[in-house]
């Protein structure tokens, strides 16, 4: 029983990181109907910012997190302006390939600058509390609580503010909304900033939980987060959160009860079954097609 | 500039005259095979260049076959490396463990064919979810499939698991690569311009409408996936016997991304585009090798710039004259004539 509870905590930790990254995918998709495949690599850049700030500037945790988020958000907006904006009217696939190209560029640029894996210094003192036979580390609690707070803030922005209303309006209808005086370009940039900023925060947290980082770490995590976004129903913010927690739980539970090499196999088989049963994700709505 | 243009036009018109020649394709095949055989027996081409040519051929097979699904059928499959892995493992297991060691050369085509058939079987299984799911969701299905293949290969210890498989002889030679490449281009080109190919194109334009026009969309999707994965498996078998070593990590999502980039670099729905894309990508990567790590920084940058200034790729939706059937050329000519006449009539 204690073992299961311990694994649930681990699952929540991994799931909240996946959910934070999946949010970036799903927000960009909701607004541009474009899959930003560079997102996993922006997550990696977040972890490297965290390394730079913590190892060379010796900043403490809160400024490191905030500066990494801002840095990644800034990078995300620049990428959107330079690479994606010229392609807004191009076929969808060109935008996807551009995103893949941007992702490759980020990976290899980081690799060219720092060829060896880096070790993030310990930013916070890790206290372990023991309740009965369960040990809870303060880092786990911090990651789970912090990502929940970030998700609540995001939910507030999207549901309650004027900018959030504009985001929802653009994802509802792209032709009419600009005519109503919504500054589409600004809203798209804002979406990119928020989405990639969350990815950066996930990068910092991942770096704290698993301190060895390398330029290719974003690929697998990014694709898995993309899967979370699709499982929840792509374009749906709450779906992305649910999808993240589902994939985190499945991965940790498979790793806990089977040999860990079966993890990917079982996780992806479950995903296939889920997609065959519900082809549009858990919270996604099937779109009626007209001829 | 004008001089370059005139030279270009001169060359192109001569090339066109050559390809319009009645026996162009048989002659091309015979000279190609003869040249490749001579090159691999007498080694008047550097071995390194030969290896690059082999990779070019394998990449052409992969790109043309993926173009059938992603370009002509308009789906977004990201799991092509998975089919390649199946073909590579089946073919290498056959040559290493099953076929007698003395007669490897004789059994090599059989092994490659078996690899292709095994991949085609898996392609059939992947086609089934594509009846209901489309677009990004189908992309996820193919992605998940690619990861499942990799994960299964890593977990079977008898075939090396994560350590990989070795012991293949270097059986992939230039003539074989030329043969399989020509075969895949020929089959897919003829498929696309057949009755079945019209069905594939109609699925890309509008699936429900094509269903209403009595296109059997399920059958078309199955055939497209099976043919595409068959050739991916063949490319995998050739790849394994060129490198003489495979492990599951070679066929992960990064390999799939490479193939996707070649397809969209060359342009969707174009045989000539696929060939150009594969050739340019493979050779450019080799030419940029002196740059070391930075070559993989410049390559994506070039790709992004190309996509921004030419979003459909080099040949997107256009076909070279040599791959277009005669009736299409005639139809186009008539259509242009009609348009011109109509333009003259109405001021």
Largest sheet of chain A: 2 strands, antiparallel
Number of domains of chain A: 1
The SSE order of chain A reads HHHHEEEHHHEHHH
**Low-confidence stretches of chain A at least 5 residues in length (pLDDT < 50)?**
none
Quaternary structure classification: heterodimer
Question: In one word, what is the shape of chain B?
Answer: globular
Indicate the low-confidence ranges of chain B by residue numbers.
none
- Cα-atom Rg of chain B, whole angstroms? 21 Å
CATH second-level architecture of chain A: Orthogonal Bundle
Mean pLDDT of chain A: 87
The shape of chain A, in one word, is globular
Structural class of chain B: mainly alpha
Average pLDDT of chain B = 88
* Number of separate strands of chain B: 2
Strand order of the largest sheet of chain A: 1-4
Return the string of H and E elements of chain B.
HHHHHHEHHHHEHHHH
Instruction: Look at the structure and give the CATH class of chain A.
Output: Mainly Alpha
Strand content of chain A: under 5%
| Number of continuous helical runs of chain B | 14
Biggest chain pair interface? A-B, 46 and 45 residues
Distinctive features:
heterodimer, A: 291 residues, mainly alpha, ABC transporter involved in vitamin B12 uptake, BtuC, 10 helices, 4 strands, globular, B: 347 residues, two-stranded antiparallel ribbon, 14 helices, 2 strands, 1% strand
What is this entry, summarized?
The complex is a heterodimer of chains A (291) and B (347). Chain A is mainly α and 291 residues long.
Describe this structure in words.
The complex is a heterodimer of chains A (291) and B (347). With 291 residues, chain A is mainly α. Chain A has ten helices and four strands, in the order ααααβββαααβααα. In chain A, strands 1-4 form a two-stranded antiparallel sheet. Chain A has a two-stranded antiparallel ribbon with strand order 2-3. In chain A, helix 1 packs antiparallel against helix 9, helix 5 (138-160) packs antiparallel against helix 7 and helix 6 crosses helix 7. The radius of gyration of chain A is 19 Å and the shape is globular. The mean pLDDT of chain A is 87. Chain B has a domain at 47-256. In chain B, strands 1-2 form a two-stranded antiparallel ribbon. The longest helix of chain B is centred in the middle third of the chain and has 27 residues, at 217-243. The two termini of chain B are 35 Å apart. At the A-B interface, helix 4, helix 8 and helix 10 of A face helix 6, helix 9, helix 11 and helix 13 of B.
